[in-house]
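Chapter summary example.
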Amino acid sequence: MDRAAERRKEIEAAVADIREIERRDGVHPESLAKIKARLIKLAARIDLFDPKDYPPPESGQKLRSCLYRLSEDADHRFALYANASLGGYGTPAHNHTTWAVIVGVTGEEQNRFYDRSSDGGVREKGRAVVRQGSGVAFMPEDLHSIHIDAPLLNFHMYGLALEQLHRREFYKEKEGRWEVFPAHSDIREARA
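The structure predicted for these 192 residues follows.
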């Protein structure tokens, strides 16, 4: 079997297992931990997910990171992406409005976790570094921000595809207010 066919087979097997976890267990922190473990197993196949296969934007461009769609069901559920970054990239505190799991393939991504504060802003409550062999999981209302210093490749999986998430909120710290992220529209197709 060639590398691309093996990669497709491994992605399909992982997504099938994740569908079954959600069907059987529902969506809660314990089931998301199982989904995270399954994605970590997929990410361990570094031989199938070489960063050269998912190049980040070229240096000097406005974008510092990009997403490659690896899998998505016809109803836009169970969407798996490869996130490729040059580094020097971050996001404000935000939610997803669907469950989300991020696991490392190469490089490191710092995640900061937040609660909404009594004054309407956010209060940091913890941090975790996502790298090969580790990950983070989020319920729909959970808040986090991403901070990437150097090149990386990781997996982002969502219960519903990013283009379908029209109510994700992010906190504009300088203005002290919440706004809605526009739905993602710059995703590169990488399905076989």
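To summarize the output: Residues 3-189 form a domain with the Jelly Rolls fold (CATH 2.60.120.10).
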